[in-house]
Amino acid sequence: MLLTTHSPDLLADEGVGLDEVLELELTPDGTIGRLLSVIPGIVQDWQDGISLSDIMRARSAPPGIERLSSVDLAAG
Predict the structure, then answer these.
(1) What is the rounded average pLDDT for all residues in the chain?
(2) Long-range contacts for 39-46 (Cβ within 8 Å, ≥24 apart)?
(3) For the residues of 3-21, what is the DSSP string, one character each?
C-alpha cells in the first residue's frame, strides 16, 4: 500500500516507524526517494524523542518561511 500525506496526525501515530516513511527530494537529475531510517540526522532526532511530524515539518518547510510572520500585508 502507498499513502502520501502532509498530515501531522498521520505522522504522529506511534505505530509509524522510520522504515515506513519515504522522503522524496526533487533534484536537477530527478526525484530521489529515501527511507527515513537511512538518513542519519533523522534517526538521531527520532532517537532523541522528536516526533516524525515535527521532523518532517522542519525538513519540508520552504527556505525563509519564518520571515512570513514579519510581513505586514496591510501596508502597501
Answers:
(1) 83
(2) 42/18, 43/18, 46/18
(3) -----HHHHH-TT--GGG-
15 found inside a domain: yes
Phi, psi for 53 (deg, rounded to 5): -65, -40
DSSP string covering 37-61: GG-HHHHHHHHTT--HHHHHHHHHS
1-33 residue pLDDT tens: 667 776 788 888 888 889 988 888 889 999 999
Note down the domain range covering 47. Answer: 8-70
Residue 76 lies in a domain: no
Count of domains observed in the chain: 1
Global pTM reads 0.68
